[in-house]
Write a structure and sequence with these properties.
The complex is a heterodimer. Chain A is about 30% helix and about 35% strand. Chain A is α+β, with helices and mostly antiparallel strands. In chain A, the strands form two sheets. Chain A has a four-stranded antiparallel beta sheet. Chain A has a four-stranded antiparallel beta sheet with strand order 5-4-7-8, with no helix packed on it. In chain A, strand 4 (about 120-130) and strand 5 (about 130-140) form a beta hairpin. Chain B is an all-alpha fold. Chain B has a single domain (about 10-199), classed as Rna Polymerase Sigma Factor, Chain: A, CATH 1.10.1740.10. The two termini of chain B are about 25 Å apart. In chain B, about 75% of the residues lie in helices and about 0% in strands. The chains are: A alpha+beta, B mainly alpha.
């Protein structure tokens, strides 16, 4: 009964142009894809993006795991030489530890408690070789956090006789120009 | 006297079967029959011509998409479409969080119109489709005591719950329920013939 009450309202003549618009919209819904089709279409890019993210994440984890295995092998290797070097910057004393693998000719360098660099500067590590100073790594340090990195020893500079660290411009330098923090013979 | 055109039972069955057969011309025909009434109902509820047009459009989208859900054994087509229109208009009223503003506007408009629901039928409109139904519902509402008619209209056109009507009219909840029950009973009796006519 109450459904008829709607008929008590005064009728309002629709604008003539409204009919075509209303019907067109109604028929468009009929010919459109079903809701689950639209949902699936909308979900597909999300699913692909999610799969891509997962794949990237998995790849990153694999690389991290491989790097960790590599590091452990290097540290456990009986032929690896451990070289602790104190680094004094102002009133602060940090430490740099080099795990030098003489078989694979790689170094693992761990830094602890190094003072953050001044703006525009970076620490730069040098190989001291028979043929002079060679760049080992540029290490910008903005925050007081430990840092570990693997470095390949130079193959074209003869014997590596020592290691040094200086403070250089942030982009690094081909030759030491800034203050030298240490110079250690191996 | 102009004989009113109306959607007869046979016409309606035919229209329904054509709608269910997905004949686009049937929806256009239904629009011709019902669009003015749907628009009037939506505008009455929303108090806004633009929003009423939105409702009209939504109603025909829903009718076309859900026509297979209409069960002719459970009721005629026209009240089914009107109920879709009413629900859609009330949803819009609530969802757009303009509830109280709209209520005030509609209430003011109704007050200014002087009980629009019981106005006499204009002679120039007597020939339009659905007009006999409109007149019958008006007469049924007009025959209600004003206190019953008020609560029936608040429930139908503003979608108010019993408690909300009680708050609005500052009547005890029990009184509101009694008036609604009596009003609906009288309407049912008054519109019985109408229901029979369409069934």
């Amino acid at each position: 009964m109450s459904d008829w009450l709607g008929m008590s309202a005064s009728r309002q003549a629709p604008r003539p142009e409204l009919k075509a618009r209303v019907l067109e919209r109604a028929f468009a819904v009929r010919t459109g894809a079903p809701w689950w089709g639209l949902a699936a279409a909308a979900a597909l890019p999300l699913a692909l993006a999610g799969a891509g993210l997962l794949w990237r994440h998995a790849t990153r984890l694999e690389r991290g795991l491989a790097a960790t295995r590599d590091t452990l092998n290097l540290v456990r290797n009986p032929g690896t030489r451990v070289i602790p070097i104190p680094v004094v910057v102002g009133a602060r004393t940090g430490e740099l530890t080099i795990f030098a693998d003489t078989i694979s000719h790689r170094w693992l360098v761990a830094c602890h408690n190094l003072a953050p660099n001044a703006p525009g500067q970076a620490y730069q590590l040098w190989f001291v070789t028979e043929r002079g100073m060679r760049v080992a790594a540029v290490m910008p340090m903005d925050h007081d956090v430990p840092m570990v990195m693997a470095i390949d020893m130079p193959s074209d500079a003869g014997k590596v006789m020592g290691v040094a660290m200086s403070v250089e411009a942030r982009a690094g330098s081909a030759l030491p120009k800034g203050p030298m923090l240490f110079h250690v013979d191996l | 006297m102009i004989q009113p055109r109306r959607l007869s039972q046979e016409d309606e069955r035919s229209l329904l079967s054509r709608l269910q057969a997905r004949q686009e011309s049937a929806l256009a025909e239904l629009y011709d029959h019902l669009a003015p009434w749907i628009l009037g109902l939506a505008e009455r509820i929303l108090g806004d011509a633009d929003e009423a047009e939105d409702v009209l459009s939504d109603v025909f989208v829903q009718v076309w998409a859900r026509i297979h859900q209409h069960d002719a054994r459970r009721g005629p087509l026209v009240p089914w479409v009107l109920s879709i229109a009413r629900n859609r208009a009330l949803d819009l009223l609530r969802r757009r969080r303009r509830w109280w503003r709209k209520i005030d506007r509609v209430a003011a408009a109704n007050k200014a119109a002087g009980a629009d629901a019981v106005d006499a039928a204009g002679a120039d409109e007597a020939g339009v489709p659905g007009w006999p139904v409109h007149r019958a519902v008006h007469q049924a509402l007009g025959a209600l005591p004003v206190e019953q008619r008020d609560v029936v209209l608040l429930a139908y056109f503003e979608g108010l719950s019993h408690a909300e009507i009680a708050e609005r009219t500052r009547l005890p909840l029990g009184t509101v329920k009694t008036r609604l029950r009596l009003g609906h009973k009288k309407l049912e009796e008054s519109l019985r013939d109408l229901k029979d006519w369409l069934r």
